[in-house]
Amino acid sequence: MDSTKPLKKNADIKPAGQGAAWRGWFVIAAALAGLATCLYLYSFHLALLMGEIKGGLLCGAGNGLGCNSVSSSPYSSFLGLPLALWGAISYVVLVLLGVGSLIFKRDDGDVFLRWAFFLTVLALAVDLYLAHAMLFRIRAVCGLCLATYGINFAIFLGLVKSLWRPSGPRNPLRSIFPGRKDEQDNNYYYRNIIKGLLNGAMLL
Questions:
Q1: What is the pLDDT of residues 4-23, one digit of tens each?
Q2: Do the beta carbons of residue 98 and residue 35 sit within 8 Å?
Q3: Which candidate, 58, 62, 61, places its Cα nearest to that of 33?
Q4: Model confidence pTM above 0.85
Q5: pLDDT tens digits, one per residue of 112-124
Q6: Considering Cα of 6, then 7, then 8, then 11, what sign does the dihedral take?
Q7: Contact 41, 58 (CB under 8 A)
């Protein structure tokens, strides 16, 4: 009877990153919702460039006055690109990080999610600045912008607890990049190819 107890304990031990599956799917779903919202916001920016006024249910009264006021402000662009497009790019990166966490969920999945967490923290810092500018400088409320803030906060809450208290040993952050050779894994060559493709897509 006593000899079976250690085996039961070992069976309960989960490999590092195995719990990343549901969090990876959550990040992907939330990031896709954010991507759709940002692309819709980008359409407001394009409409204003063409001299049109576009309305929306979440953009306040006056035929979408809130979103249009924010889109036409000097705070709506960075390095010559609309902030909505920057937001769309960040959500695409989050989707790719979520995909990476699912592909490598048995070992390096938590590393992809930690990078997603850091990107979300950066996005929330930008959101705080933009919310301040929207309320106290532009003096208009963009409901779609607030929706992206909520999505970022939801991703933050979905990742912070599990990453703050990991269920297993943490792999280094550099594990997201190709080049780490594991002598016990004969598939490291193909793993590095997948990581290289994911990293290349995120940089692109």
A1: 444 444 444 444 444 567 88
A2: no
A3: 58
A4: no
A5: 888 899 999 999 9
A6: positive
A7: no
**Strand ranges, E, within 32-118:** 77-78, 81-82
For residues 15 and 107, give the distance between their C-alpha atoms in angstroms, rounded to a whole number: 7
Residue 82 bridge partners (DSSP): 77
Backbone phi, psi, residue 82, to 5°: -60, 145
Are 21 and 105 spatial neighbours (Cβ–Cβ below 8 Å)?
A: yes
Distance CA 117, CA 159 (A): 6
CA distance 173 to 64: 43
Looking at this protein, which amino acid is placed at residue 2? D
Strand partners, 77: 82
Q: Token digits for 25? A: 């799917």
Look at residues 127, 130, 112, 129 and name the one whose alpha carbon lies nearest to residue 202: 112
Residue for token pair 């989960």: 14
> Do residues 35 and 188 make contact, with C-beta atoms less than 8 angstroms apart?
no
Residue 41: count of CB within 10 angstroms of its CB: 26
Closest CA to 112 of 97, 127, 122: 97
CA distance linking residue 115 with residue 107, whole number of Å = 15
- Quick one: which H or E segment has residue 126? helix 109-133
